[in-house]
Amino acid sequence: MRRFEGGGDFAPLRPREYDVLFTLSLAVAHSLRLRDLNEQVFMSQPSLSRMVERLEVRGLVSRAPAPDDARGLVVTLTTEGLALQRRVGRQHVRSIARYVGGALDEEELRTLAELTRKLRTYQP
């Protein structure tokens, strides 16, 4: 991970900001309730709330009251946020290929991708 951070893969985002945008990019309508987003990223709820506020100021996400619960909050990836997530994601994929690609053959890369997907979507 340090190689990716040091190489500027996530610029102009921090890695955790990218994780939030990436998680939202996979969600239906690019939206999640804040509590559901919190379950999928490795951050405390207060830290995530502050980050979402900063991302909203930058125009990368929007926040709105949950339609079924006024106390809840829905976070949605904006068009600008999705474009940035995709741009940063492409750079990150190129770096992964550079750092990992030579060490693994095609079958191993497919296995790694499948295992990573399983870990990312696992819900105990």
UniProtKB/TrEMBL annotation:
Pfam assignment, any one: MarR_2
GO biological process: response to stress
SUPFAM superfamilies linked to this entry: Winged helix' DNA-binding domain (SSF46785)
Domain HTH marR-type intervals: 1-121
A molecular function GO annotation: DNA-binding transcription factor activity
Record protein name field: Winged helix-turn-helix transcriptional regulator
Species of origin: Georgenia yuyongxinii
Lineage: Bacteria, Bacillati, Actinomycetota, Actinomycetes, Micrococcales
